[in-house]
Amino acid sequence: MGTLTGGDPAKLDIEELLATRLLVQGNSGSGKSHLLRRLLEQSAPWVQQVVIDPEGDFVTLADKYGHVVVDGERTEAELAGIANRIRKNRVSCVLTLEGLDLEEQMRAAAAFLNGLFDADRDYWYPVLVVVDEAQMFAPSVGGDVSEDARKMSLGAMTNLMCRGRKRGLAGVIATQRLAKLAKNVAAEASNFLMGRTFLDIDMARAADLLGMDRRQAEMFRDLKRGNFVALGPALSRRPLPIIIGNVETSARSSSPKLMPLPDAHLDVEGLIFTPDPEEFTRPLTANRRQAPAPRPTTDILAELSRSTPASLQPAAAEPRTPLPVLTVEEREDRLMAVMAEILDDPQSAYRTDAVLYQDFLVRARMRRLPGPPLSLSDFRRRTAIARSGVDAAMASSEAWTTVLSMSNSVSDDLQGVFLMMAKAALGGEPCPSDARIARAYGTHSARRARRLLGYFEEQGLVVVHSDFTGKRIVAFPELQAETAPGSAEAPDEGDLKIAAE
Length: 501
Fold this sequence. Notes:
Residues 18-278 form the AAA+ ATPase domain. Pfam families: DUF87. The protein is 42% helix and 13% strand. The protein contains 21 helices and 14 strands. The chain is an alpha/beta fold.
């Protein structure tokens, strides 16, 4: 990685790092990106690398080390598929998110990380996953992005740091401020490289992570650019100051330098206030540099295939069978049949939407369904409706149309529970038990099920009350309907079926 203060080489054990993960912290200008670049360059010949790059600084690795550059301006399904093939073919890559706004960056990074995480067990090869500016993807508190995007990104980062080791994913995360990084993500790292920082709260957390006395935390203010304090099984058993060495590639951006001003013109006011005739013909758009056009998915697939060993290449390309021509109704029937196959599995209630969506895409490809695939949001919506158990007669009624309109006011993860309760009210069925509500939400916690009903009541969507025997009734004022009395403690038939199997 560089040298110690005495001039001896500072070494990092890559195999130990793959098992223990790394956290890098330092204020802007402390040399974090330089450190990550040094780590990537030195380990490139030995381990597959994946870089989540929000500013496009690491794309220069492609020229010297052969990293595939993946533009993040794609659909979530495309990014998940590319990530899966990245693992399958063991190709190093840089996911550049330059040109996207913050919420789009979070969604793209989450989809890509989930694609890496969900790879088949046969492809759990060791991968160094470097995430620059990790506080953007795992914030400690909510910001100006939607709650859905924040949960999606934070969940992917948590999987990387908490559960990624068994899948061969070794997280290396860099952040400007520890206080902005979610604690459950930072706490999973066992190796630390702490750079220059000035705020008391960040210095105190850095000292705590390194096992130093808080009175020694002042030293982090005095660190020079490119100097870090290292600790961890892959670095040193005791806090050790190191100086990061030189790198062979450079970022496209650089630190600002002083430049002499141009020679003063005599007629400065005329130069500034006299318009250029071409200005009147230019469109009134923001002067923003356009993001590079994303590379077609076919180009990336071709590059991945070239990276596959010759022994694994097919002898000759087989002619592809054309996709069948289906009417809109036939295609819809087949899509619903695929969804029914997935949801018929009792365990599907406890799998994440991302896992079910990947299963759906695979099954749809196997049946060679033509047309663009469903988006993840559309899949979630259809899944919620299917799990509610609504029949064709009720689905065509005006009351169910009102239910669907009301469900738009709740988040995607709650729609399945809301639609199930509304269907029970419209049909006069007994109120679902806590266990049934919990399974619809994808959990085993009865307490969480009761909190969901309380949340719906706070939003003014339902009214929860009991009959004279103590059984629960859920009423929908806008529908003028309510469930029949039902026991909150009753067991769930789905869980009993799973236990029997």
